[in-house]
User: What shape does this take?
Amino acid sequence: MSDQTEPIQVLVDRLARLPGLGPRSARRITLHLLKRRNATMREVIEALRTAAEAVRPCSVCGSLDTRDPCGICQDPKRDVRALCVVEDVADVWALERARAFSGRYHVLGGTLNALDGVGPEDLTVETLVQRAAEHGVQEVILALSATVDGQVTAHYVAERLGGIDVRVTRLAQGVPIGGELDYLDEGTLGAALAARRAFDGADPL
Assistant: This one.
């Protein structure tokens, strides 16, 4: 590759690393940005810079916001008795789009996966247990993906909450086996939340 084209390829390579993008999509985006460098590219650069400087993880729930604690944790209208446990921030955004939950959230930061070396110590399970025990929580909703890793994590979390006087529930119908929350439509998520049921540790994966 010539010196003239190397910056282009570097940009393509960086974009191709993003979730949902491959080399072909990255090339199309690169070409679009370069053709509109005085408008779109500069706007994207500024938006990225602003987000990098202003957005931070919430020290309470683990979501992302420009405030700490985040807007949801600070909102006095949210129901402090209900705590919804999710894998990632994308799941918080998905549930908020559905407008079916008025409580607060707890982001685990992933799921248990022995093959990838992700154990309980890599997730915020201990913080969750503390929140469930100390902040008047009456129900913990396990809104984890219907994947093997998601269900293994749900069972582990339910066991860790076993000594606390809280009702542990999980999402009901509407979530297909292998489904991830961020890919479900708002109606499906709303139905699954509304029809949640008690979590039974003996349920098959």
The chain has two domains: 6-54, 64-198. The longest helix spans residues 37-54. The longest strand covers residues 79-86.
